[in-house]
Backbone:
């Protein structure tokens, strides 16, 4: 058993891409009952999906899931809150209420 990296598995997926005034988003749905855990990585294969403004699309693709090993999973769980804090933006005003 490798403590740093786990096994890889290939699955099919559907990639939904939206490029509208209301939303710019991409979402991947993996086939089957696949559980993604902390530290796992998902690589979707194929050319980049280009969607013209105002349109949406869905494409079928192959994806590879690289499972995290025991040490990597524990590290992600321990440091995840710290990385989340980097995403937050704080603003302080000098005005008195």
Residues:
């Amino acid at each position: 058993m490798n403590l740093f990296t786990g096994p890889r598995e290939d699955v099919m997926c559907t990639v939904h891409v939206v490029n509208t005034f209301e939303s710019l988003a991409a979402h991947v749905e993996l086939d089957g009952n696949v559980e993604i855990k902390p530290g796992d990585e998902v690589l979707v294969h194929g050319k980049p999906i280009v969607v013209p403004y105002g349109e949406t699309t869905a494409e079928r693709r192959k994806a590879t899931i690289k499972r995290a090993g025991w040490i990597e999973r524990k590290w992600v769980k321990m440091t995840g809150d710290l990385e989340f804090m980097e995403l937050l933006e704080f603003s302080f005003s000098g005005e008195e209420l």
About this structure: The longest helix spans residues 70-87.
